[in-house]
Amino acid sequence: MIETFQKEGFQAYIVGGCVRDLLCGNVPSDWDVATNATPEQIRMVFPDSYCDNKFGTVAVRMGCPETPDYIEIEVTPYRIESKYTDKRHPDKVEWADNINDDLSRRDFTVNAIALSYIKEGGLPKVEVIDLFGGRQDLLCKVIRAVRDPNERFLEDALRMIRAVRFAVTLGRDWRIDAVTEQAIKDNSKWLKEVSQERIRDEFVKMIMSPRAAEGIELLRRLGLLSYIMPELLEGYGVGQNKHHVYDCYQHSVKALEFAAQKGFDMQVRMASLLHDIGKPRAKAGDGLDSTFYNHEVIGARLAKQILERMRFSNKDCNKIVHLVRYHLFYYNVGEVGEASVRRLVRNVGKENLEQLLQVRMADRIGSGCPKAEPYKLRHLRYLMEKTSLDPISAKMIKTNGQNIMAILGIKPGPKVGRILDILLGQILEDPTKNTSNYLDDETRRLGAFDDANLESIAASAKKQVGAVEMKRDQMTKKKYWVT
Questions:
Q1: 3-class SS of residue 293
Q2: Residue 190 pLDDT level (bands cut at 50, 70, 90)
Q3: Left, alpha or beta for 432 (phi > 0: left; psi -120 to 50: alpha)?
Q4: 9 φ/ψ sector (left φ>0, alpha ψ -120 to 50, else beta)
Q5: How far apart are CA 278 and CA 214, in angstroms?
Q6: What DSSP element (H or E) covers 95?
Q7: d(CA 10, CA 40)
Q8: Rounded Cα distance, 92 and 124, in Å
Q9: Mean pLDDT over the full length of the chain
């Protein structure tokens, strides 16, 4: 693409995050190009492209859509931007004449590096434009605003969250420059001018990183969390009872930390962060014996308000709120029976069980417990699976009492049940026999037996069914390491 632009007499540079990723030795997830061509000229050079935004960005299709190497590259004219009245968008967009002006408007130095190539002696040579020390900041793992950070954040207040997101997603040991940090603290109030959708997108990217918990704490320390999730801050310094090591806020962050370390999905991570968000409002008493009755109900209501405010999808909102509502289930081996487990499964939904148990594990680690999944939680998994399995019964075979009575011309009685028991035993031994033809023929054969013989065969079949049930139960117990 760069060479194509140059042949047509235009300049073109790879810019933005893809340059940062390349210099860090990572494969870019997407590509951005800046050029001195106008949107109309870009489309003339690359007819297979489209533009549907006011910033002049043209999406250029490269390759065939049916092939793995197909990509869309975003190409934008060099531009300078005027005043940002709403702290989100430039009042107007003007094209610039050179790459230097374009790099000057970017957010952070590590994102303000441009790459192209020139030919010297017929050989291509990489050309690097780095006006603000971005390569040095990459080496030092520093997020630093381009020029005056106050101006950058007044242009677009979302950049303050982006600074935190980059600090926790680019890898270990990354940090925000001290001057940039202070500017974030000074300008944090402008975050209220940013749309919730944009805040949500940056927030989700942050919590999906392995260092999600560090991101939350950095948001708090820089004064941004109060404009994103003030309900979480209510738990800061709010002590808990004897079952917890950390205060409410620390507990939630620790739970998220575990969920991120385990690679749990976004819904579980959000539920882990929000599962105890109702505790500060439910707290009664003080010290080691304080209580938090109904905090899961209050928390579910608060979680719903937060997620709806941040414009999460209905699907994500409903799932996360559900996990918060039911995270406080009670289970102790020998105290809670199968009926209670079935009721829990019914309330939570079979499809949500694994996520609920993951939230519970995060909750335990966030409470200071040494084990995420102790014996009683493994035993609960065993009972959940056991109660969810279809029972071994005559309903599994492709015949029924009505059919047997019709074939033999008999009325309801013990003989029908005994034949069903015998047929069930046969298909457990050989599932291929579970066909209507076989079962009808076998029904006719068994119908000729006298009651005594039929009762004896049926008794043996019942023992066989019991043995299968016992073996299945043993295998399920072994799966979860319970006895």
A1: coil
A2: very high
A3: alpha
A4: left
A5: 22
A6: strand 93-95
A7: 13
A8: 37
A9: 87
Sign of the C-alpha dihedral computed for residues 456, 458, 463 and 464 taken in this order: positive
List, in order, residues 6 or more apart from 273 with CB less than 8 Å away. 207, 216, 232, 252, 253, 255, 256, 259
User: What is the value of pTM for the model shown?
Assistant: 0.77
Strand segments, DSSP code E, in 364-437 are: none
Q: For every residue of 6-43, which 3-state class applies, written as one string?
A: HHCCCCEEEECHHHHHHHCCCCCCCCEEEECCCHHHHH
Bridge partners of 90, per DSSP, are none
Helix/strand/coil for 13? strand
Give one DSSP letter per residue of 204-247, joined into a string: HHHHTSTTHHHHHHHHHHTT-HHHH-HHHHTTTT----TT-SS-
Distance CA 242, CA 474 (A): 37
Q: How confident is the model at residue 300 (pLDDT cuts 50, 70, 90)?
A: very high
Report all structural domains of the chain as residue ranges with CATH numbers, in order of start: 2-139 (3.30.460.10), 141-228 (1.10.110.30), 254-388 (1.10.3210), 395-479 (no CATH)
- pLDDT tens column, 27-66: 888 899 999 999 899 999 998 888 876 678 888 888 777 7
Residue 328 burial (C-beta neighbours within 10 Å; 0-12, 13-18, 19+)? middle
Counts for the chain of helices (H) and strands (E), in that order:
24, 11
- Write the single-letter amino acid at 421: D
- Residue 86 structure tokens: 């709403």
- Structure-token match 């999460």, residue found: 312
CA distance 267 to 313: 11
The mean pLDDT value for 157-183 works out to: 96
Is residue 76 within 8 A of residue 57, CB to CB? The reply is: yes
Q: Report residue 232 as tokens.
A: 């979480």
Residues 6 or more apart whose CB falls under 8 angstroms from that of 271 comprise 303, 319, 320, 323, 324, 327, 355, 359
